[in-house]
Amino acid sequence: MRWLKxxxxxxxxxxxxxxxxxxxxxxxxxxxxxxxxHSTGDWxxxxxxxxxxxxxxxxxxxxxxxIRLRRMFGLFAxxxxxxHFTTYIWLDKFFDLHEMIKDVSKRPxxxxxxxxxxxxxxxxxxxxxxxxxxxxxxRWNLLHRLIYVSAIAAVIHYLWLVKADLTxxxxxxxxxxxxxxxxxxxxxxxxxxxxKPALFPGKRAEVPEG
Amino acid sequence: MLIKKPADIASSEITPRxxxxxxxxxxxxxxxxxxxxxxxxxxxxxxxxWEQASAGTKIDGIQKSNFSTNEKITPYKDVTHYNNxxxxxxxxxxxxxxxKNFRTRPWTVKIEGLVSKKKTLDVDSIMKLASPEERIxxxxxxxxxxxxxxxxxxxxxxxxxxxxxxxxxxxxxFTTVYDPSQMPGQRERVLEWPYVEGLRLDExxxxxxxxxxxxxxxxxxxxxxxxxxxxxxxxxxxxxxKAIVKIAFTEKQPINTWNKATPNEYGFYSNVNPNVDHPxxxxxxERRLGEFSKRPTLMFNGYGDQVASLYSGMxxxxxx
Lengths: 210, 320
Prior knowledge:
Chain A has 210 residues and is mainly α. Chain A is built from 9 helices and no strands. Chain B is 21% helix and 20% strand.
């Protein structure tokens, strides 16, 4: 497990190493800052999807140990989001606070992106085992459902930003849709099942399983 | 994070143009050059006009122009590998490769509508209407980046005068070629094809409005709009239609493609204006390719002295 974690950790750094190499070798194209912005944004979305994919995957494959990788994926999503956000405030706005406030309030796609990032902050902060203990599993779980909102906001951020070709943001929308759809199903199916007997209290034993 | 600031490169250090050519065009050029030396130009003359007009062919007798800016010219490699040309791809890096084998000959341009002399002209005869001029223009994309390009061509008015517009004509509409077999982007319904752009007649006749068939002293590369494109330097880049096959004079204002796609974001005029934001982003500043910081965007892209009078009394927030 330990070695696996190290290997995955290094793999997760791959996109950053690739960017650094391209920056060093002049491979970022005609508009390097745009390249960095798009790349870090893409990887944030990818890591959000991977993080959200852990629970369905471990349940469907019964590989329950996968949960031990989830925190790392989530933190990498935050890491790339922070890089993406830094690119924006530094290389796009040059720390012009006034401009940024105007942007966040005036441009819906920035508002959505900023929301997506802000929501990840408490999750990153409370990702340690100590915080899980302090909050208690139930509350911690509830808090960390914010990732659903963050992922939706991130996809909206992308959808609202493109000019005409929606293909790429729609791909993310589809993946996030499936991953969240799985959860809705996972919650509602037992709910429906448990309600059915309540509707026919006298015939409880006759309700078939499955 | 390590970000290398693009260094200012002296023109003497820039890789010679030949190395950027596609291998094929390079070999073709070399073959023609060789043949010309050997056969006293005979073989070169026998080569088809398509081959002679491919990107990388030098244009002779280019005149300088007073309309040119003396700002630093954007490297050729950037202008040919960072293209918004949705007919080929919505990725900016896409058109350079996808347009490589685009056929620009034979090519005719139909001029029709409210004119007394409707004409269908061959692109090679259009290019001979006047001696070629070099115009070094600022080019500002609606997305917030800009370049400085030495275009080659002549004022569009030279061509438009040929067909004698009628008094009723108020607008000029430009249509880009529609050929999905050659333009993979046209197989997607990202925009409505063919691409249509338009100008008011006085804008079209303005001396700055440029009919372009070359850049950097050479024939226009396919990904930059070959064989014939428009360059309207005080408007956002998308107004400068590429690969033009039809020019129509109309009484009614044409509906340009981007305006049709998103009317609240892209207007008919689309003059560069730092005071009128795109609904989704600010237009106050721009990133000149090759520069680290953003620079302020100028009203009419810095061409206000020449063109502001065209819009006197107009509310440019309304007619964006």
